[in-house]
Amino acid sequence: MIEDRHEELASLYAFDLLEGAERDQFESALARDGELQSLVRDLKETACRLAFTAPPATPPPGLKQRVLASVTAAGDRDADNVIRPSASVWKFVPWAIAACLTLTSAWLGQRFASTRSELATIRSRQELAEISFQSTQQQLEAERILSQRRMEDSERLLAGLNRDLGVARGLVAERDRQLADSRTQVAALDRQLGEARTQLASVQTRLTDRERQMAALTERIDALAGASAEVGKQLGDARQRIAQLNDELKTQGDLANLKITALASMLKNLPQAQAIAVWDPKKQEGILDVQKLPALAANEDYQIWVVDPQYPIPVDGGVFTVEPTSGSSRVKFTAKQPVSVINAFAVTRERKGGVPKAEGPFVLLGK
Amino acid sequence: MTVPENPDPEPPEERQRVDALLMRRIAQGDKEAFASLYDRFSGPLYGAALRIVRDPTEAQDIVHDAFVTLWEKASTFETDRGSAFSWVITLVRNRAIDRVRMRRRRAELLADSVPSDLGYGEASGAPSVEDAAAMGDDAQAVRAAVATLPPEQQRALELAFFGGLTQEEIARKLSEPLGTVKARIRRGLLKLRDSLAQRL
């Protein structure tokens, strides 16, 4: 089975259309493949048949004479190389001589008759040769002109190439200079890079030291923070203690200014009733602690009075009641008007809610 | 002007056998055989040469040179390598194509010619009634077989045989890719072979 590719190459080969390596490779394959050789032979025969598709044309009659004359001339040239008969046929020599004489006579006659036509043919060939010579001369002249043009083109091309070469050399030199500059810059950058690396190493070393210092400081801060908390706590305690001391000192100072007065019963039927009043002039307030006072009716209250000489009547200190069973009470009171000097405290029995000016009987009095 | 011989009535095998016999006699220096072979071949050889070179004088020179070569080299002809006609038409075609290419180079040199001046691009015209009558069985059979091919294959085979062009030049002339042209030549030639096998 022949591959399509070989069929295609065989078809092209039949028309002598293969060239170069393609032709060599195909002929190599052809030499090894009998089937392919048969195909090529068939295709060549077929291709040659295409000659019959040319428009029919009849060659001129003189062509045959010309061909035959040429062949005859060639035959004459080869006559000297004809092999003579062997010695074994000597018995036919007389007959051969006679035959030769007859043939020679006939040939000489024919030769004499054909000499003129051969001469004419030779003259015709000479004319053709001259025409061919002139044609060849024209061709050579044309090829000379072409060669000259090609040479001129080549010279122009060469000149152009030389110019391009000069430009290219200039470019190469410029590139070399740029390359040298670049190398110098690269060397400088290498140096800078080395220095930067050294600095980086130094910075890294310093950074490491700083990190160690930072760690130590952190530890110390942590320790100080612990100590600070303790100190803060101690400080808080101290401040609290100071506040307490201040309070105590203030209390002691305030106590010195307090007005403490014992109130005695003004009731004859209940002499055991008593009370103690403590007045803080700075705060303008006081505490009254009563004992064994009788419980009052629902429409009555005990009312406290502060006696200050700057006022014509005692200053109202508010109302209170006592616990019915024990008759005691402890009340915080304030004066309705600012008082500065206290001569006495008094308690009266008044209407529910108290009165602006004492109306009821005195229950307790103290100076 | 002489009239070509009448169509050969021999079947193809017999015709080739006679051609081969004539070649053997020519190889032995038989001028009568040579003249007979000339009468058998000169018509199609001259027609093909004229089709390629488009110049009667050049076509005559080509046919002349081919027959002289045939006379001188007849002893080298081998029947198992192809028919005598194929051998001689190859001589004619090669010489004609050489001349066309030389002329083309010359035209390029002088730069005053166009491709049509070289005989390309002209389809072979249909033969007249007289011409057809003058053609032998071979010619009629080949023309009939070629006529069965698609036009593009006919054109490719025509350029391949008569054009004297390379593959690439044929492709450019047909404005087709090279692979397409190769495929057309392959398919056309194979189909022509099969068709001729049936007709001859």
Sequence-ordered SSE layout with sheet pairings:
The complex is a heterodimer of chains A (367) and B (200).
Chain A: H1 4-14, H2 20-32, H3 34-49, H4 61-79, H5 93-257, E1 259-265, E2 274-280, E3 285-291, E4 300-307, E5 315-320, E6 329-334, E7 344-351, E8 362-366
Antiparallel strand pairs in A: 1-2, 1-8, 2-3, 3-6, 4-5, 4-7, 7-8
Chain B: H1 12-27, H2 31-53, H3 56-73, H4 84-110, H5 129-134, H6 137-147, H7 151-162, H8 167-174, H9 178-199
Helix pairs in contact in B: 1-2, 2-3, 2-4, 3-4, 6-9, 7-9, 8-9
Description:
Chain A has five helices and eight strands; from the N terminus they run H-H-H-H-H-E-E-E-E-E-E-E-E. In chain A, helix 1 (4-14) crosses helix 3. The longest helix of chain A is centred in the middle third of the chain and has 165 residues, at 93-257. By secondary structure, chain A is an alpha+beta fold. In chain A, strands 5-4-7-8-1-2-3-6 form an eight-stranded antiparallel β-sheet, covered by helices on one side. Among the domains of chain A are: 1-49, no CATH class; 258-366, Immunoglobulin-like (Sandwich). Chain B is mainly alpha-helical and 200 residues long. Chain B folds into two domains: 10-121, Rna Polymerase Sigma Factor, Chain: A; 128-200, Arc Repressor Mutant, subunit A (Orthogonal Bundle), CATH 1.10.10. Residues 1-8 and 112-135 of chain B have low confidence and may be disordered.
In short:
Chain A has 367 residues and is an alpha+beta fold.
Number of strands of chain A: 8
Cα radius of gyration of chain B in angstroms: 18 Å
CATH topology of the largest domain in chain B: Rna Polymerase Sigma Factor, Chain: A
- By CATH reckoning, the class of the domain at 258-366 in chain A would read Mainly Beta
Quickly give the CATH architecture of the largest domain in chain B: Orthogonal Bundle
Q: What are the low-pLDDT stretches of chain A, counting only 5+ consecutive residues below 50?
A: 82-89
Order of helices and strands of chain A: HHHHHEEEEEEEE
Shape of chain A: rod-shaped
- Tell me the span between the first and last alpha carbons of chain B: 30 Å
Give the CATH architecture of the domain at 258-366 in chain A. Answer: Sandwich
Radius of gyration of chain A: 79 Å
Query: What ranges of chain B have pLDDT less than 50 throughout 5 or more consecutive residues?
Result: 1-8, 112-135
Name of the CATH homologous superfamily of the largest domain in chain B = RNA polymerase sigma factor, region 2, helix turn helix motif
Number of helices of chain B: 9
**What is the CA-CA span between the terminal residues of chain A?**
155 Å
Domain module tally of chain B: 2
